[in-house]
Amino acid sequence: MIMTVTSTRLSSPDWPCQVKAPGSYDWERSAAKWLRELVPARYASYPAFIRHPVLLARHAQIQVEHEIRVARTALQTARADLPRLGLHEGAIEHTIKLYAAEVMQLQHIARSVRVVTRALLEAGR
After folding, report:
1. Each residue of 53-95: pLDDT tens digit?
2. Long-range contacts of 37-44 (CB under 8 A, 24+ apart)
3. Which of 19, 62, 18, 20 is nearest to 40 (CA)?
4. Cα 61 to chain center, whole Å?
5. 66 near 125, Cβ under 8 Å?
6. What is the pTM of this model?
């Protein structure tokens, strides 16, 4: 079973560098630490999430998906909303690029959470 989990990490460009390879010493702890950084602090300290990293991974996935929706909304409405705030065209263009980059980064994080979740599930079998 460890072979499958390890091959997931080695073959996936989405595996986060902050998380040790599945099957290695303390890898689940490194996964939980990384996942805690993706959720609001109050969630990270809930006993159920501490005891069951796969629950933490589920919540992190929901959190990141929500952040993607927020960033997409901000991107889609920027051209109409930002001029009303008195921002000049350069600031608006910069902000649009920022939102676009954030959407891409969040999509990468969402893929990383899915890969880590899959590894945690495989390790628990």
Report:
1. 999 999 999 999 999 999 999 999 999 999 999 999 999 999 9
2. 38/63, 38/64, 38/109, 38/113, 39/63
3. 62
4. 6
5. no
6. 0.86
